[in-house]
Amino acid sequence: MAHMPVREGKMSCSSCHNPHGSISNVKNLKTGSSVAELCTSCHTEMRGPMLFEHAPVRENCATCHDPHGSSNDRMLVVRMPMLCQRCHIASKHPATLYDKDQITTNKSNRMFGRSCVNCHSNVHGSNHPSGQFFMR
């Protein structure tokens, strides 16, 4: 899904927001006191706990996802691989996709499919023993 199901009538603004305001938070969220708490009230598979957690997932889903919809894949705030590169700069991979000299010297396969999630598929967290790299 690349948008919130508001258009289909499956959700409304009041599904997430309290129209009369909220004392506990500034965004008038209906459930919880943070964006992450609200999102995981429906998206329970992302709740955790995970053995290896990706810190931004715990903090705020809106770090990567646009909660009101987006034209990008899976409601991401920016397209891949730029989404990952906003925080992960030159960590065991070339700093940019176009850094061809580092790709050939490091034998990196980062150019494959132009997306980090081709290899790092469990970006929300992992319980696998090799999960610190979010590959399983």
Summarize this, please?
The chain is mainly α and 136 residues long.
Describe the structure.
The protein is mainly α and 136 residues long. It is built from four helices and two strands. A two-stranded antiparallel sheet has the order 1-2. The longest helix is centred in the N-terminal third of the chain and has 8 residues, at 35-42. 11% of the residues are buried. The model has no long low-confidence stretch (mean pLDDT 76).
- Average pLDDT, all residues: 76
> Over the alpha carbons, how many angstroms does the gyration radius reach?
18 Å
Strand order of the largest sheet: 1-2
The oligomerization state is: single chain
Total separate domains? 1
Largest sheet: 2 strands, antiparallel
Which class of secondary structure composition applies to the elements?
A: mainly alpha
Described by the principal axes of the CA atoms, the overall outline is globular
Q: Determine the number of helices (DSSP H or I, runs of at least 4 residues).
A: 4
Question: How large a portion of the residues is in β-strands, by DSSP E?
Answer: under 5%
Give the secondary structure arrangement, pairings included:
Elements: H1 35-42, E1 52-53, H2 55-59, H3 82-85, H4 100-106, E2 125-126
Antiparallel strand pairs: 1-2
